[in-house]
Amino acid sequence: MTRSPVLELRGLSRRFGQTAVLDDIDITVPEGSFTALLGASGCGKSTTLRIMAGLDRPTSGRVLLHGEDVAGKTAHERNVAMVFQSYALYPHLTVFQNMALPLTMRHLSSLGRMPLVGRLVPGSRVARNLIEKKVSEAADVLGLTDLLDRKPSSLSGGQKQRVALGRAMVRDPVLFLLDEPLSNLDARLRVKMRAELVALHRRTGKAFVYVTHDQSEAMAMADQIVVMIGGKVAQSGAPRDLYGRPASMGVATFIGHNAINLFLPDDGLHGLHPAADRAVIGLRPEHLSPAANGALEARLETAEYLGSEIILGLRCESGTEIRAIASGDYPIPAPGSAIRLGFEPGQLHLFDRQSGKRIEVTS
Amino acid sequence: MIRSFFSRAVSTLLLFAGAAVILLPFVWMLSLAFKPRDEIFSSRVQLLPSRLEWNNFVVALTETDVPLFLWNGFVVVGGILAFQILFAVPCSYALAQRRFRGRTFVFGLVLAALLVPFHVTAIPIFLGFAKAGILNSYGALILPFVPTAFGIFLFRQFFSQLPPDLFDAARVDGLSETAIVWRIAFPLALPAATAFAIFSITAHWNDLFWPLIATTDPHLATPPRGILYFRDQESGDDVGPLMAAALIITAPLVIAFLLAQRKFTQGLAAGGLKG
Fold it and tell me: Cys bridge to A43: A39, B50, B96, B176, which one at CB 3.0-4.6 A?
């Protein structure tokens, strides 16, 4: 199944004065995909999104929308929708007016937009009815029907979020751009809105580009993740690929709920892999568990019981810290006692010591 | 407890004394406007008139040009305010929310213009208007005040506090920059605009300096200028109607301020000019 790309960034760079914020970025957003731009703050992911939207111009490189260069086009001409982190609702307009504004700008002439006089302009009645219909449809989908007359200041965070989504939805854009839309919500609401966003994505069938610094958000929602580190694309691919075969140490530390264990050659854990004296070894805590004949021995320091699992904090002979995960029924030994840890050889990652790049495990 | 009561009593008393000094002329104006002629020049100080003399107002409104002066004041002040907002709002939006070469320099010029009193530029403007032949017109009374450094500064401070995301959202929604100014920025700046309107209206309704220089035609006289004609004609003889006219001229400002008082203080606080 090959999906034609909606949006492509080709060799894109952006500098502010002397500092390069984006350095030779290539990103392809396929039709109907949910793409997450994942990275720490300051890695250039928001700038990338602004360039996709047409709010910022690249210093060099091309932005292609359906294969056509849109460098000179505004966000409106590109027909992309954007949801901002701060929601950016117009405080002086009601929910209805907020959602109707993009349609008003498209369907009514400048005279037709005038209050009172506008109603006399020929054709404006049809346009107004159309706008009203589209807004009430979107409001219905998002459960905003009862709030249409309220001002944004009287809405809760989740409601504001929905209005911002509604404003993006009503005009039927070719692409949705979302800039950390859930970061201002509390944890419980965030998980709920996550599911709603995925449902909305399925419903519209349009491509979503979602900027976030939260890897679990990206893993949970996206079918394609682009990891950005220091203004470059470190790796892009399906969540499973990023987790299973991280292209670099940076990606490996970023992806995954539990921070990956990295063993440097100096740590003296040579028994793990023949290449351990030359390369950095990565092992995720969830792949490292107590086993009677395991290859690693370490002393137990802490144990966090979480019900379904126990997170063990250990320290080995050379002083390196290790985190491992045991199943919930594992009897926790006394702190200080030695535990042997085992792992599947296939779960081990090797990285080049200098460049941090992945080395394929051959054995 | 007693101490704080005492200090509050003292400060309240001092405020009352200050208010009395400032309000006395106004109270006297109010008193004279309602007094019959024979009581105005009596040797005794008497605050309340023995009977209300409405005739003073009738004379002021029917036998003099006071209605014309009010109309002129309305046209001039309204014209000034409308044009000031028409130019200052887009200009300050650009200074606050757009990036362009020389932006800091232009804003520096605005700040510098704040330092120059109008009286310095009055003579060059007068000479220019005289050459252009537009003295003695509404235009001559309105034009010099249309570019307002104070207005640009006030609105810029307000706009620079608004989140840039809001304007980006408007751009994505397809609003042109002009549309953003009038549909998004200006409605949000209404508190600041009210504060500015009060400053502008008070300053230009009460202005005597420029109308005295720019116009000689009595039919163009603004209220303060008009009161001067009034006094000349009557040579101070007819104080009752004069005071009634003065009352009529001051009243609109006081009423407007009282109505907009809350918005006014809000606007100043929002504009970052508090304190």
Answer: A39
Three-state secondary structure along A45-76? HHHHHHHHHCCCCCCEEEEEECCEECCCCCHH
Q: How far is CA B275 from CA A1, A16, B80, B196, in A?
A: 66, 37, 27, 16
A contacts of B191 (beta carbons < 8 Å): none
pLDDT over 70 at B177, yes or no: yes
The answer to whether A263 touches A280, Cβ cutoff 8 Å, is: yes
CA angle, residues A345, A349, A352, in degrees to nearest 5:
135
Percent of chain A with pLDDT over 70: 97
Partner-chain contact A106 B168, CB within 8 Å = no
- Give a yes or no: residue A196 inside a domain: yes
Chain A nearest-CA residue for B189: A92
The structure's pTM equals 0.81
> Which residues, in sequence order, are CB contacts of B129 under 8 Å at separation 6+?
B135, B140, B143, B214
pLDDT tens for each residue of B5-27:
889 999 999 999 999 999 998 88
Picking from A204, A221, A249, the residue at the C-terminal end of a domain is A249
- Residue the block writes with tokens 């706009």: B159
Q: Among B235, B234, B236, B207, which Cα is nearest to B222's?
A: B207
Instruction: Judge residue B25's burial from the number of C-beta atoms within 10 Å of its C-beta, 0-12 exposed, 13-18 middle, 19 or more buried.
Output: exposed
pLDDT score of A272 more than 80: no
Amino acid A250 reads G
> Could you tell me the end-to-end alpha-carbon distance of chain A, in angstroms, rounded to an integer?
33
Partners of A53 on chain B (C-beta within 8 Å) are 168, 172
In chain A, how many domains are there?
A: 2
pLDDT of B275 above 50: no
With contacts defined as CB-CB under 8 Å, which chain B residues touch A101?
170, 173, 175, 183
Edge-first strand listing for the sheet containing A309-316: A289-290, A338-342, A296-305, A309-316, A321-327
In CATH terms, the fold of domain B63-270 is MetI-like fold (1.10.3720)
Instruction: Report yes or no: A255 and A241 within 8 Å, Cβ to Cβ.
Output: no
Does residue B237 register a pLDDT over 70? no
Residue with tokens 């200074």: B95
The question of ipTM being above 0.85 is answered as no
Range of the structural domain that residue A346 is part of: 259-359
pLDDT of residue A124: 80
Our CA-based measurement puts residue A91 at a distance from the nearest CA of chain B, in whole angstroms, of: 8
Question: HSE of A59 in the Cβ direction (CA atoms, 13 Å)?
Answer: 14
**A84 close contact with B: CB closer than 8 A:** yes
Is the confidence at residue B273, as pLDDT, over 50?
A: no
Nearest chain B residue to A103 by CA distance is B173
